[in-house]
Amino acid sequence: MKILIKGDSARYERYSPGLSVQQTAQITFIPRDADDQTVLKNGADADVLFVDAISRVSGDLIRRMKNLKMIHSEGVAFDGIDVEAARKQGIYVCNNKGANADAVAEQAIFLMLALLRSGIAGDAAVRSGRQIEMKEQRMREGITDLGNCQVGLVGLGDIGLATARRLSAFGCRLCYYSPHRKAPELEAQYGLTYLPLYRLAAVSDIVSLHAAVTPDSRGMIDEKFLSHMKRSAFLVNTARGDLVDNHALRAALIQGLIAGAGLDTVSPEPVTADNPLVTLPTSCRDRVVFSPHLGGITTGSFRRMHRTMWENASRIERGEKPVNIVNGL
Fold it and tell me: Per the record, what is one GO cellular component (predicted)?
């Protein structure tokens, strides 16, 4: 069996589960951003394709890889893969559902606390000798406890539920929106109230995004959504940057329509220095906290994800059906 990997060989070595398929398969590494011609040159006859979670796998490439049986995202996201083309070719597309839920939930709460406690501005104040000035300013303005916030979760999959579980321990009031309402038993278990999307925006002190990117959700955090949010509210995104209209969020921050944003994901990736959310004016720059899309890349998460990938490769080698199939096969 031949396995082609679009990703970092050092990472795969570090998180290797040491399964027998890794010894018997022919394994080839190419860069994460390799184009279709490079893929075909190195692995047109590959049986399995492992890809970075933000890699693109086009329908044309899928149709030209005649031996391909499975495409596996290294992470949870798979929106860069043409899943419909793969389905038509009978090729499984798999992800690592739930493997990094706890890690991403922790990142979401880190960003919430950084926003509420002025993490960026506070750090800068201490480094520049303005500690007391900053402390006095925040006492005058007031600091909201996370436990006193109503948090609206947009999307309630594995990561949304992991976030809800942690926020419940803080004492937060929780509401959520998803395209399909969850069972009453699940709502009761997590203390969740279902709300329509714009109602959630209107009542939440923090809106936290946990939705997958679909044609319906792409750009859903737009001018209309942001106009419903409180001026004192924060937006947190640990899901995908494609959920957010960058220019609408930039305008809302500049105009003071929302209090700030915590962003682990920004579209497009890799994020460049001229991104409209990176080039905010100094008047509102400190109200945004960025992290470099590291919410789901903890050591524990990667160990779980890589084990699933190689176990699925073993299943393919044995002619069995893999787990975590996302394209309906």
Answer: cytosol
